[in-house]
Amino acid sequence: MFTRRYFLYLSAAGALAATKMTSKQRVDRALKGQDVDRTPFTYWHHFGLEKSRGERFAQATLEFHRQFHTDLVKVMSDYPFPKPSGNWYEQKVVNNPFPEQLRALELIREGLRGQAHFLETIFNPWNVAEKMSSPEEVLRLKAENPKALESALEAIAESEASHARKAISAGASGIFLAIANAQDGIMTQDDYARFSEPFDRLVLQAVSGSPLNTLHLHGDKVYLDRFVKGWPAAAINYSSFGTGRSVADMRAKYDGVLMTGLDEKNFRQLSEDDLRKQWDDARAAAGNKFILTPGCSVPNDSTDAELMRLVKVTAA
User: Fold this and answer.
1) pLDDT-based confidence at residue 217 (cuts at 50, 70, 90)
2) pLDDT in tens, 63-90
3) Mean pLDDT score of the chain, rounded to an integer?
4) Rounded distance, CA 233 to CA 164, Å?
5) For residues 127 and 295, what is the distance between their CA atoms, to the nearest angstrom?
6) 199 Cβ neighbours under 8 A, 6+ residues apart
7) Where are the beta strands (DSSP E) in 129-213?
8) Pairing relation of β-strands 290-294 and 257-262?
9) CB atoms inside a 10 Å sphere around CB 306
């Protein structure tokens, strides 16, 4: 059932349609909860270019944005964090941990020419620790030497905070902080509060003045309510389909920008009618502070034709 607010939105959007907005203008208005000519949208997937130079990565990012007309450029970030020479947990602070990524961001800024916002993806320190060792090894260290783990996570967080500041200086409008461990079955809420939240906040706090910091709450059993207040972020990206938490329920608890609405797991099979319904339903529940997105990356092997379905729907 559509709400009165939704029909008012349609009326206002119709009045704005005669004046086509830029992607940046749409996102700026969504941040303020203002009417737009159409809902801003974005989606993303991994390019598999973590061994390539920053120039190639930037090229792929800009080509994706231009081909599929995304309103917000969510920059992937698959370059590995540099490992220490000794044990992985003997980590020291690295001033510039992702030089190729930073070069890519500078080129993306130049390529966008101020017409669209872009976000830098940063995987939270716990995830970085898992990638440098393994999930099992991180849990073993947590049990046997929690102080050593906390020291390693703090060094990673300070390194990522340094990168975040550099990313903003390079033109990013915020960071897209990916948090995949704040969920049942991976960490208890008490463990997340001790071993992850302080370091996640450290990274975000480094760029707290950025207008579009986004919490990417990854997974199907996320402790969503931990994040609806008190974080220096303008938006939350989560999977309404995976978690089963409706957009209406999240909107009742969260007054920032919601980035959600699309079923990322079944994206390749969704028809234009399916996509239109998901868009309409999410927009009606979220209101104006809304950017249509999947809950995570769409499948990497999505074809151009499959990706173009959403473009056709949003352009209609």
Assistant:
1) very high
2) 999 999 999 999 999 999 999 999 999 9
3) 94
4) 13
5) 18
6) 124, 125, 126, 153, 154, 156, 157
7) 174-179
8) parallel
9) 15
